[in-house]
Amino acid sequence: MTFGELLRAHRLRVRLTQEELAEGSGVSVRAISDMERGRAKGPQRRTVEALAGVLSLAEQEIRELLDAAKEGRVRRVPSPVTPSALPPDVVDLTGREGELAALAAVAERTRTTSVVVVHGPPGAGKTALAVRAAYRLASRFADGCFFFNLRGMDVRPVHPSEVVHRMLSALGVPEKEIPAGEAERSDLYRARLRERSTLLVLDNASDEAQVRPLLATGSGSLVLVTSRLVLGGLEAGLRLGLDVLGPGESFDLLGAIAGRARVGAEPVATARVATLCGHLPLALRIAGNRLASRPKWTIGHLAGQLVDERRRLSALTAGDLQVRTAFEMSYRQLGGKAAALFRRLSLVPGADFGPEVAAVLADLDRFAAEDTLEELVDMSLLDTAEVPGRYVFHDLIRVFAGERLADEEPAPVVGRARRRVVDWLLGTAVAAAGFFGPDARTTPSGSLRGQEDADAWLTAEAGNWLGALRWAAANGLHAEVVRLATAMHWYSDQRGRAETWAEVFTAGVAAARALGSVRDEAVQLNFLTWTLSVLLRRYPEALALYDEAWRASVAAGDVVEQGWAVHYRSVSELRTGRLEEAQVSARRAQELFRLAGFGLGEQISLSCLALVLDGLARHEDAVRVHRELLANVRSGRLELAPVMATEMSATLLVRTAGSLGRLARWPEVLAAVDEALELLRVTTAPSSLCDALYLRGVALHELGDAEGARAELVRAAAVAEEHRHPRLAVVLGALADVHEALGDPVEAGVSRDRAAAVESADR
User: Fold this and answer.
1) Which of 224, 235, 486, 644 has CA 20 to 30 A from 552's CA?
2) Beta-strand pair 391-392/383-384
3) Whole-number mean pLDDT of the chain?
């Protein structure tokens, strides 16, 4: 065994991490990692003895370790094999024309020596791209094309001096004229390349140190380096990060391997296989080969095998091609801390994550977690997300990380890590939601300094805290589910997606029932009724749910929840045009809130009554009521948190402007919405912002400022589209009218078509 293999075996036998061995011996973690990976083959005697002391080795074991280190220091004679021939080209290389064009452009403008680094995750097809490029570009380089597999993922990567020796042989230097000394050999290597035009492909590089000695200035030469690492330390003229293929390209690759007629006969199943392969070229190639070698299989049968994550990597095997093996080669290069974090990241509930989630999972501080995440990115085992500072797994690599977690860490340890991140996500979500509503917190909570931070966190981590909620619901953490759903009520009033809140409050209802808490059931049923009515506009369902909410609130003896139930009934009746019934319900809700001494509820139900009055064409009455309510909010009588007082004031101003618009009092509309927009500068309330911009655009149009109107309506449409506001079709219709007024029928038609598409999708 080599020194590195012996050292790793002894360390694992006594169950020490590389960090623990480093702490005890005084040898750095990096040095230990290099030894175990074969990069440092022959450490000095004092280093070996320091390591042996911590490992508690017997005398014979120490002698074996010293002998292995001595053997590693012996200079080895390089192989005389001449590596000038390229490997076979991959005839069905798919989806890389853009990268090949970029490489051709570099070759075209090369005057001295250009360096290009092609990096990407295992299985992305880096070697296939480099080989195809070399075949296409070889004729441009008069003195030849040379290919070297540096075996960067092996225990013993190829040493640069070996490549230099083999390159000199390939350039025709007689063996007896190749210097024995490494420095002299490198000098001759550079001298021979200085006046030559060559294409040098250095495939599968382990790191910058392996590549640097091979970079020599030539006359119009190109060095093409492939690596799973980014190799950020190299000065490269171009870096090509290979991503996965697009859906169409994946379909084409499967067709090229398995048969175009075959995939054409099962397009849905083929698309499913491509998705389950994560559009990774290696996985797609294996899937295609499996289908080609099993002509009686349907593509749907293979898709069925790949659906189960526990079998997916095993199913992606064809002969000596294995996705799992490709991942394992990179995984073996990781140090202990990075490997542990990599495994535990498979527990992240959402699609992407930030350093805080990683820190909780691995029980590290945030900065150590961030450094380790960047190490995983450099190893192409993790990718950066679209949002700066966040990270994402490739689907198949996440499955592999989950396998390693199950195989290498005890179930109780995994369980504690999962529960730790679930508790942290739910707890932080509750704390963030606490910055919204009538009793909003005003003091910082952890890393959340205020409402802006809280909103940003809840938005960025939506997939994760929602995933944590699902796990909690499935695993009987009912109290935690109710706590989160209750905390989210006021936040959900202006933010997030309607479908999210339907899921959250449905889970809240189920959890309350599991706990046997009738009051919590009433609360959650009211939240869900509001979501169905106000956000999803599913009015029949909302009205049907009212009966359940009313019965639960009566059973709980909670008059406030009875008021909410009747209030949400009035909202559904208003939205379905049952205005007289809505008026009765709104007044009944007022009475219940007044009976309970709940001023805020009374205020909100009165605002609903004003909307009913507006619907009954009693616009003057609606304006009067909304202005009265606005005065109440501004007086401080309701004791609202400043943030909620601001949002409620903005909402009331927008509603006032809506009634004024129906009275054609356009200057007053502008005054009201301008005041609302000023308030909305300091808070995030997309629904009110959209309505204010829409009304401002309409008012400007009516007052003869069509250009100003267009600008406001374009902004309103953007906000409505981003936040799925139900007014989007109306905004687009108004924008079409403005385009017509400005003499732009083409843009008017575009807006009308968009409005029609939105209305069709909403039906």
Assistant:
1) 644
2) antiparallel
3) 90
Report pTM.
Answer: 0.74
97 and 225 co-located in one domain: yes
State the Cα–Cα distance between residues 701 and 708, nearest whole angstrom. 8
Q: For residue 349, give the CATH number of its domain.
A: 1.10.10.10
In a domain, residue 495? The reply is: no
pLDDT digits (tens, 9 = 90+) for 319-344: 878 899 999 999 998 999 999 999 99
421 occurs within a structural domain? no
One-letter amino acid identity for 298?
T
8 Å CB contact between 368 and 359: yes
Is 348 found in the same domain as 300? no
Residue 194 lies in domain: 84-241
Provide the 8-state DSSP code for 475: T
Residues 6 or more apart whose CB falls under 8 angstroms from that of 530 comprise 542, 568, 571
Structure tokens at 231: 């190799």
Give yes or no for residue 179 having a pLDDT over 80.
yes
- The one-character DSSP state at 16 is -
d(CA 562, CA 559): 5
Q: Are residues 139 and 21 in the same domain?
A: no
The domain boundary residue, chosen from 192, 221, 241: 241
In three-state form (DSSP H/G/I as H, E/B as E, the rest C), the secondary structure along 120-181 is CCCCCCHHHHHHHHHHHHHHHCCCCEEEEECCCCCCCCCCHHHHHHHHHHHCCCCHHHCCCC
Q: Where are the alpha helices (DSSP H) in 597-665?
A: 599-615, 619-635, 642-662
- Residue 224 and residue 259 in one domain: no
In the listed set 241, 272, 301, which residue is the last one of a domain according to the structure?
A: 241
Q: 152 and 50, same structural domain? A: no
The Cα-based distances of 18 to 30, 34, 425 in angstroms read 9, 11, 30
CATH of the domain at 13: 1.10.260.40
Looking at the fold, whether 66 and 172 belong to one and the same domain comes out as no
* Residue 168 belongs to some domain of the structure: yes
Specify if 536 maps to a domain. no
Cβ atoms of residues 550 and 572 within 8 Å: no
The strand pairing partners of 271, in sequence order, are none
Measured in whole angstroms, the distance separating CA 288 from the mean position of its chain's CA atoms is 28
Render pLDDT for 56-95 as a digit per residue (tens, 0 to 9).
888 888 888 888 888 776 644 433 333 447 888 888 899 9
Nearest to 452 by CA among 437, 432, 438: 432
Q: How confident is residue 637, by pLDDT bands cut at 50, 70 and 90?
A: confident
Residues 267, 339, single domain; the answer is no
Structural domain total, the chain: 5
Instruction: State mean pLDDT over 501-510.
Output: 97
What is the C-alpha to C-alpha distance for residues 229 and 235, in angstroms, rounded to an integer?
14
Residues 376-402: tens digit of each pLDDT? 998 889 999 888 899 999 999 999 999
Do 94 and 235 lie in one domain? The reply is: yes
Mean pLDDT throughout 517-528? 97
Lowest mean pLDDT among 112-121, 276-285, 315-324: 315-324
If you search the block for the tokens 């929602």, which residue do you land on? 466
Q: What are phi and psi of 238, to 5 degrees?
A: -150, 140
Residue 622 CB coordination number (10 Å): 26
Cα–Cα dist 96/129, whole Å: 7
User: Residue-wise over 367-395: b if at least 16 C-beta within 10 A, else e?
Assistant: eebbebbbbbebbbbbbeeeeeebbbbbb
